[in-house]
Design brief:
Elements (H helix, E strand, L loop, with lengths): L1 H13 L11 E7 L3 H5 L3 E7 L4 H12 L5 H8 L23 H8 L9 E2 L18 E2 L11 H9 L29 E3 L7 E5 L2 E7 L17 E5 H16 L4 H11 L4 H30 L6 H38 L23 H10 L3 E5 L4 E5 L7 H18 L18 E3 L1
Length: 442
């Protein structure tokens, strides 16, 4: 009987019938049960129909997660600002309904594959308590979509495979709640130091805002990058902000972005020079490993030579040299890995995706800070400061799964600004100041 019941559920799912309560955002399209005896009892079966009020809420939740990289709590907080527009879910038990969006309700929507239009069953184990989830390999899917989707499968997959939020410890453009806070930093959480790969934080000195990365002589002493990192690394906020505004205006949303991107990808195509560079790094790694071996041999030869004090000093000296070689070896390994990853990832680039974004003729700098940060999050902006070369590297990502939605979000963000300036001949984004001695690397 269990086997027959299991087969019945599988066939039920493949035919597109929903099992259980319709998920939030859908209504039940009930039809009389095909079995006469059960139909006589008033039994029905149902498929899913989009709820005109709650269906758009589901779509917006996925966009907030996929595009703006908001966490579950941040999404719930935004929805709770307007409960009339975003009605919260109702629990199966009336006494459990709290009338607000919660982390659990948002997560439940983002993890439900039925919103892709497919019917899915066996996501949860039914023989065990605690709402235990089955592995994805055990889910039963309908062969094709059987009801109207509220989100594309590509967006669902991007949210499912990247469950971690892109936000830092504090999202949004609002000031810190600390009583001494006097200003905000528009690039907070986007700037990284390439020496230690840590986020740089905002700090004001002599009335001018900067982004700073400190080296802690106690906690970071054993880090591979310790010797190369200065005590305090500072870069002016004005330089970085100008570079980001120019980058979005020229390279992301400018009229020549497609031409510039194709030229950049063509110039970065791997060739003989890349293979030679990789081989050079491997040779340097082997040379350092040979030096480490010689140090160990030297230590064995002089193990019992001299008085104890001299021996301790000798061993300490060997240890320091050995550690320096090991840090250098790890640095070269990281460079080799990055070099190989950048070479293998070039083939997956699709430069034509950038044409799905709007071309804008208005100044990015005039957008409110909160709207700028919405676009930074959606494009997964990363600003990397290379202190040794005094260079700023800027990167955004246009995923194929969300490229069209990204274009719509961009139009939505800049629409009020564009409408206010219709008919004006607006210059394109200005290039960053060249007297800063920093080179923006797009």
């Amino acid at each position: 009987m269990l086997e027959l019941s299991w087969d019945g559920f599988i066939e039920h799912t493949k035919q597109g019938w929903n099992i259980g309560k319709p998920p939030y955002g859908y209504l039940a399209d009930k039809v009389p049960h095909p079995v006469p005896a059960r139909r006589a009892e008033g039994r029905t079966k149902h498929r899913l129909l989009p709820d005109p009020l709650r269906g758009p809420v589901v779509t917006e939740i996925f966009q907030l997660r996929a595009l703006e990289k908001l966490g579950y709590q941040a999404i719930a907080d935004r929805l709770n600002l307007d409960l009339a527009k975003y009605p919260p879910p109702v629990a199966n038990r009336a006494e459990a309904t709290i009338g607000l969006w919660t982390v659990q309700s948002v997560r439940g929507i983002l993890e439900n594959p039925k919103y892709t239009g497919y019917q899915v069953w066996n996501r949860k184990a039914r023989k065990k308590r605690g709402n235990k989830r089955n592995p994805v390999s055990e889910w039963i899917w309908s062969p094709q979509p059987v009801h109207e989707p509220l989100v594309t499968r590509e967006i669902f997959n991007s949210v499912w495979t990247n469950k971690r939020s892109g936000q830092g410890s504090r999202g949004g453009a609002e000031p810190n709640t600390h009583p001494d806070t006097q200003r905000t930093y528009p690039l907070r959480s986007y700037v990284r130091c390439t020496l230690c790969e840590r986020r740089m934080f905002g700090k004001t000195s002599k009335g001018r805002p900067h982004y700073v990365c400190y080296r802690d002589d106690v906690h970071h002493r054993n880090a591979d990058w310790f010797d190369q990192h200065p005590k305090a690394l500072w870069v002016s906020e004005k330089i970085l902000v100008n570079a980001v505004h120019w980058f979005f205006g020229e390279r992301v949303l400018g009229p020549r972005r497609t031409e510039l991107l194709h030229a950049q990808l063509a110039a970065s195509t791997p060739g003989a020079g890349d293979a030679q560079k990789a081989e050079q790094l491997r040779e340097e790694i082997k040379a350092i490993e040979r030096r480490k071996e010689r140090l160990l041999d030297e230590l064995d030869e002089h193990e019992d030579a001299g008085d104890p004090e001299t021996t301790r000093e000798f061993r300490r000296s060997i240890r320091e040299r050995f550690d320096r070689h090991e840090r250098k070896r790890r640095e070269l390994l990281a460079r080799l890995h990055q070099h190989e990853q950048s070479g293998s990832g070039r083939e997956e680039q699709n430069a034509d995706l950038i044409d799905l974004l709007p071309r804008l003729g208005t100044s990015f700098a005039t957008l409110p800070e909160a709207e700028q940060r919405r676009l930074y999050d959606a494009f997964q902006l990363e600003v990397r400061y290379l202190r040794p070369r005094r260079e700023v590297q800027l990167q955004v990502i246009v995923p194929a799964a969300t490229a069209e939605e990204l274009g719509r979000l961009t139009r939505q963000v800049v629409a009020p600004l564009t409408a206010a300036r219709t008919g004006e001949d607006q210059p394109c984004f200005g290039r960053p100041r060249q007297d800063s001695n920093l080179r923006p690397s797009a």
